[in-house]
Amino acid sequence: MRFGQTLKKSIYPPWKDQYIDYAKLKHLLREDSASEGDDRPWTADDETKFCEEILNVQLEKIASFQESTFKRLEQRANATGEKLKELAPEDGKSKDDALTSKFKKIEEELDAIINDTKELKKYSSINYTAFLKIVKKHDRKRGNNYKIRPMVQMSLQKRPFNSEQGYSALLNQLSMMYFVVRQQLDDNTDPAVPSSSDVQSQSQSPEKYTAYKFWVHPDNLLEVKTYILRRLPAVVYSEPSSKSPEPQADPTLNSLYLDSPDFTLYDQKREKKENAMSLRIRWYGQLKDNPELHFEQKIVHENGTSEEKKLLIKEKYIDSFIKGEYKMEKSIQKMERQGLPEARIEAFKKTVNDIQSLIKENGLQPILRANYTRTAFQKPVDDRVRISIDTQLAFIREDCIDEDRPCRDPKSWHRRDIDSSAMSYPFSNINPGEISRFPYSVLEIKVKDDATKKQPQWVQDLMGSHLVYAAPGFSKFLQGAVSLFEDNVNDYPSWHGNLTDDIRKDPQAAWEEDQTRKAKQAENDLVIGSFIGTSQKASASFKPAVSSPVGKSYMEERMVAEERAGRRSNLDGSSASGDAGNEEDETQGSSSQGGYGTLASVFPSFSLSRYAQSRRSKSTQLPPGVTKPTQYIKDSGPLQVEPKVWLANERTFLKWQHICILLGSLAVSLYTAAGKDEIAEAMGIAYIIIAIFAGSWGYWMHYTRRQMIVDRSGKDFDNLIGPMIVSAALMVSLLLNFFFKYKQAMAKYREDELDLTNMVLANQTVKDFKIDL
Fold it and tell me: Rounded to whole angstroms, what are the CA distances from 580 to 235, 571, 583, 589, 612?
């Protein structure tokens, strides 16, 4: 269908004069029927008129109307919220007919606001698509001298009237109020807090997950992975291939999407119609390795939940299955031979019929392929949080829409030029017009729903950080279709305009935005609690954080810890009156890392804080159903130690014995030659003691390390105590030896000097006596 006809069918009658004048722009571009045969050259005046009309007239009209209408909807929603607050139930007071009628009127007002909001979103989307369509026509026909698409895209970014996030706050507010009204009108409704419009629920019977999707800039990808790895281990995949049984950490996935030449499934999914469906063929790795292939049909229901139907099929049957010639008879016969329950066989037959009916009724054919590398994170036997990161995402055309230039062989269900040669990312051999490489990685977080509806704190910190960019409702199928078949689709997804933005955010600004959002959510939860008679304690106790936990660096934490340590040391010398006021700082500081020169920096596992002491005094509580193993996995199996490990231990023992013999020889020599020298005798005894310690220490360490090797201990083999004691003892002995020898020499020197003085005096006395005679 031509876009002009699509635009006419999408017009909302009350706003018919506020839509883009697409016909006028085509007339100025000389693309309408009235301009056929007009061979006049395109001049600068013609370009000026067109740019003036599209930028200063049409864009201003659309943006101004959208902004003013959105403000009126917000005012209506706020006014309805004030009315709703006035009807808050009082304790002990039952509902009467008058109160019920007021709630019904409010429900009608909310219905009207929601309908107008939906129409405004459709209005923004169809006009945004119209701008891109007409600009593409301009650049294709007049682009030799004038290209205005970059300028128009920049203008559209400055006026983000098609942004999905711009409507999220209003939709969430309406959802909260509508939930409150339904609680008052229907006593049998389950009092569960409604989910945000930015998330998608997925039901996998009997469990239900809430999915959040984000984009990750390449500059932040490694930091996001390391942040997640601290909490969840990476999943090691094992490709279902007969030739590649070895596990792979990051497998390559291929999703081959089917749609009609008119993109029927695309339109249903884009417009979020009831029971919108999508169909794909999915496999891991290269097709030449014979992986398992699955037909996957996804159905999105009216309540937002999704249902998936999977069908395992062999490659040789796919063509005949798409044509409806093969109805999985062999698989059905195999199930019957295995004696599977009749209900399961009938369910399998129904899945086959549903998928083939979908293909036949809509004329589906392979349209595009999504190729990407997936990294998954999940704890074993704990599926409360499941995270996947898809990198190196590329979309490739697989269609035969143009019969003169088909991208694949019409007789085959896939492109043989890709799969036969085992092409991989970045697919350099494919024509540029047949491939689109997505600039970001796609992060998906799935959290299992429980009674509390509460997410782990680290998940909340990641989702609100500067490392990720929220992309609610992002779909690889929609993105691939709009990037490869821009001329064939008549409506673009809401995130299309954000692809040209720089999704990197300032850490502080992102954190402040997240704190504001959490505070608003806490306020809404309190309002809901007051209506349904429950207290939302978790949200009511929300307290703004001091700084972003994800945005901190190691050096920043080190500086903060040192500053706290210095502040505490200064406060210790002050009066005791400040102890109570600083109790909070001391508690926070005790759990942080110590600064340089502290005991914790030398022995990281040792801490004297009250928190550490209490943790050491308590035994770790194991989860229910988990028992402490009697033997670890590392200790199972035969002992296999390399000879060099034993030889290294023996070499160290011999070195210690060598030191023992040297010191012992020195000690015996000193003691034997001492004679009547008490100092030499004492030093000989000291060296004998040091030699005995060195020999004993060497033997004890040899035995200890041998036992550690046999026990497969993961402890460090280093031990600095023995070498430090021997070194310190030798140093002290040498210093004492020098001190006592020096003292003895000085005493002898003074004695010799006194004897010399006495001798001189005696000689002088003799001389004087002789003179007197």
Answer: 48, 11, 5, 15, 21
Distance CA(509)–CA(465), nearest Å, equals 9
The first and second tokens of residue 439, run together, are 């600039």
Greatest mean pLDDT range, 388-402, 657-671, 718-732: 388-402
DSSP state of 241: B
Measure the CA–CA gap between 122 and 311, rounded to whole angstroms. 35
> Measured between alpha carbons, how far is 230 from 692 in angstroms, rounded to an integer?
48
- pLDDT tens readout for residues 211-230: 899 999 988 888 888 888 87
Segment 634-643 long-range contacts (CB within 8 Å, at least 24 positions apart): 634/712, 634/714, 635/711, 635/712, 639/710, 639/712, 641/709
Best CA proximity match to 295, nearest among 281, 309, 305: 281
Peptide bond between residue 206 and the one before it cis (omega within 30 degrees of 0): yes
Kindly give the pairing relationship between strand 293-300 and strand 435-437.
unpaired
Residue whose token pair is 């069918």? 9
Does this model's pTM top 0.85? My answer is: no
Extract the tokens encoding 699.
Answer: 């033997």
User: How many Cβ atoms sit within 10 Å of the Cβ of residue 488?
Assistant: 17
Contact residues for 693 (Cβ-Cβ < 8 A; gap 6+): 725, 726, 729
Peptide bond into 426 cis (omega under 30): yes
Q: How far apart are CA 30 and CA 26, in angstroms?
A: 6
Kindly report, residue by residue over 734-750, the tens digit of the pLDDT. Answer: 888 888 888 888 888 88
Region 644-670 average pLDDT: 87
Tokens found for residue 378: 């999940």
Q: How far is CA 676 from the centre of its chain?
A: 79
Residues 6+ apart with CB under 8 A from 421: 429
pLDDT > 90 fraction of the chain, expressed in percent and rounded: 15
Q: Does domain 209-237+250-510 have CATH number 3.40.50.2300?
A: no
What's the average model confidence in pLDDT over 144-151? 79
377 vs 253: CA distance, rounded Å? 16
Among candidate residues 88, 113, 111, 110, the one with its CA nearest the CA of residue 99: 88
192 pLDDT exceeds 60?
no
Long-range interactions of 736-740: CB distance < 8 A, separation 24+:
736/683, 736/686, 737/679, 737/683, 740/679
Q: Are strands 382-397 and 435-437 parallel, antiparallel or unpaired?
A: antiparallel
pLDDT digits (tens, 9 = 90+) for 263-277: 999 988 888 888 888
Q: Identify whether the C-beta of residue 523 lies closer than 8 Å to the C-beta of residue 516.
A: no
Amino acid letter, residue 74 = E
DSSP result, 386-444: EEEEEEEEEEEE----SSSS-SS-TTSSS-HHHHTTT--TT-TTS-GGGEEE-SSEEEE
Residue 409 pLDDT exceeds 50:
yes
Residue 56 has pLDDT above 80, yes or no: yes
220 sits in which H/E element: helix 218-229
CA distance 386 to 373: 17
Residues 6+ apart with CB under 8 A from 674: 680, 681, 684
Residue pair 393/254 in contact (Cβ under 8 Å)? The answer is no
Which distant-in-sequence residues (6+ apart) come within 8 Å of 726 by Cβ? Answer: 659, 690, 693, 694, 697
Which letter does DSSP use for residue 55 in this model?
A: I
Quick one: pLDDT at residue 359?
A: 92
> Which helix (H) or strand (E) covers residue 376, if one does?
strand 365-379
In degrees and rounded to multiples of 5, residue 482 shows phi and psi of: -75, -25
In angstroms, rounded to a whole number, what is the distance separating the alpha carbons of residues 261 and 549? 49
Q: Span 569-574, mean pLDDT?
A: 47
Q: Is the pLDDT of residue 232 over 80?
A: yes
Q: In this predicted structure, what is the pLDDT of residue 177?
A: 79
